[in-house]
Amino acid sequence: MKEALSLVQRISAHPDSRCWFVSWSPNGALLASCGGDKAIRIWGREGDSWICKTVLQDGHQRTVRKVAWSPCGNYLASASFDATTCIWKKKNDDFESLTVLEGHENEVKCVAWAPSGNLLATCSRDKSVWVWEVDEDEEYECATVLNSHTQDVKHVAWHPKKELLASASYDNNICIYKEEDDDWECQATLQGHTSTVWSLCFDAAGERMASCSDDRTVKIWKECPSENGQGNLSWKCVCTLSGYHGRTVYDVAWCELTGALATACGDDAVRVFKEDVTASPDEPVFSLVAQATKAHSQDANCVSWNPKEAGLLASCSDDGEIVIWRFKEEEEELD
Amino acid sequence: MSGGVQLENANPVVFQRSLDRMLTASEEDEDVHDPIDDREIFDLIRSINDPEHPLSLEELNVVEQVRVQVNDTESTVSVEFTPTIPHCSMATLIGLSIKVKLLRSLPERFKIDVHITPGTHASEEAVNKQLADKERVAAALENSSLLEVVNQCLSSRTF
Q1: Which DSSP symbol is given to A330?
Q2: How many Cβ atoms sit within 10 Å of the Cβ of residue A62?
Q3: Is a pLDDT exceeding 60 seen at residue A207?
Q4: How far apart are CA A258 and CA A274, in angstroms?
Q5: From the CB of residue A147, how many other CB atoms can be counted at a distance below 10 Å?
Q6: CB of B30 within 8 Å of any CB in chain A?
Q7: Which distant-in-sequence residues (6+ apart) come within 8 Å of B141 by Cβ?
Q8: Quick one: which of A330, A327, A284, A290 has its CA closest to A309?
Q9: What is the 3-state secondary structure (H, E, C) of chain B?
Q10: Do B139 and A298 make contact, defined as CB atoms within 8 angstroms?
């Protein structure tokens, strides 16, 4: 297969530690990373290379597991093993700690902002998912605590178009939540993975969802009307990518610009899949179009597509490094 | 013995320790790369202390060389351990100690898999799943009291 994934820069981001997560700012100009050294680092471009602009060191007492930018780009949320979620406000090139959200009983595994910017979701090893409301005075309040999982919740993600939340868990399931009459409730429990579901994401239109698991597969789910035809929607697994990943798949990311699907795997590789245009949307077929088998010297933990620059991909690893990649679409060969 | 603590397994079977490794000429040669083999992994884990008894995991037959599988070229290590009794509540702790010892001793390229010998523990699936979850392991090791207990299992005893 043609090498369509080329290395732009390798960065020693969290030395002597592991880098757990990377996330691009909404305008694509900054990359936030976090890791086992309890720090958050903000990376920006200077000329042709990416350099560290800011280090946020004292926000957490333990590993920072994930970071998330608000849709406006002015706030950053960080989820930590110290059981708190910190909200940071951007002030020029620096960030100041605005507030600390407490409530989870133990490690917070993920934080995610809803597209509206008014809601935040967090999840934890305490098996719960919390939805927080933010008002114009930058006050955060817990709106609901959802207890649909029976084990550690690893990841939460918001639907891009409607107020719908999905969560992935150590109990091998995915839960979908919706607000009904001012109350949040679990609308559907998606079973299919045979081990921990580590991450999930929606495509740009929110019609499909991709999930990845310790069972070494990636599953594609599609929204469909439920059997009893009562207008409730459920999600069905329409495609399973298996045989590509040698170990646990820790992250999956769907590019909103190109539709390409990237994965981060415990076999140290980063892979990119693309959907075959000829297949039916109800039975999609994905092909592996690029891979970097030794992307990192240890497990790859996260992949993130730049939201503004097509083909720019960031990945990070247990070896503490971040790699910036360029994924080039293959041009049609004319006979 | 004082009338205080009740041991889970009061009368464990004690096994004999194996002899020291005999070095070959090739292994003594500094210029020849020594691939990591089963015996080397076993030597790393055999002296880990059992959390309950003043005995090593080797002496309790919790770890055996035959249950260690290494592939140096693929950078994988697999260790099967056998709890002394099927309802041993220390199984996760013992597995964690083995995992930590290997994480601290082996080159970073190694993928380490520690699991219970099939059929020897009532909750083996649950224990194996926790040991395989690196996020759970990392978070557990940030807990200072648990880390202290693990370090005690890994400390060398003077005879």
Answers
A1: P
A2: 17
A3: yes
A4: 9
A5: 11
A6: no
A7: B100, B147, B150
A8: A327
A9: CCCCCCCCCCCCCCCCCCCCCCCCHHHHCCCCCCCCCHHHHHHHHCCCECCCCCCECCCCCCCCHHHEEEECCCCEEEEEECCCCCCCCCHHHHHHHHHHHHHHHCCCCCEEEEEECCCCCCCHHHHHHHHHCHHHHHHHHCCHHHHHHHHHHHCCCCC
A10: no
Give the integer Cα–Cα distance in Å for B159 and B157.
6
Residue type, B108: E
ipTM: 0.94
Cβ neighbours of A215 in B, within 8 Å? none
Of B108, B133, B139, the CB nearest to A297: B108
| Pair of tokens at residue A234 | 């459920």
CB burial of A268-282 (b: ≥16 within 10 Å; e: otherwise) equals: bbbbbbbbeeeeeee
Which candidate in A104, A169, A170, A317 is best for mutational testing of the B interface (most B CBs within 10 A)?
A: A170
pTM over 0.80: yes
What integer is the mean pLDDT of B135-153?
A: 96
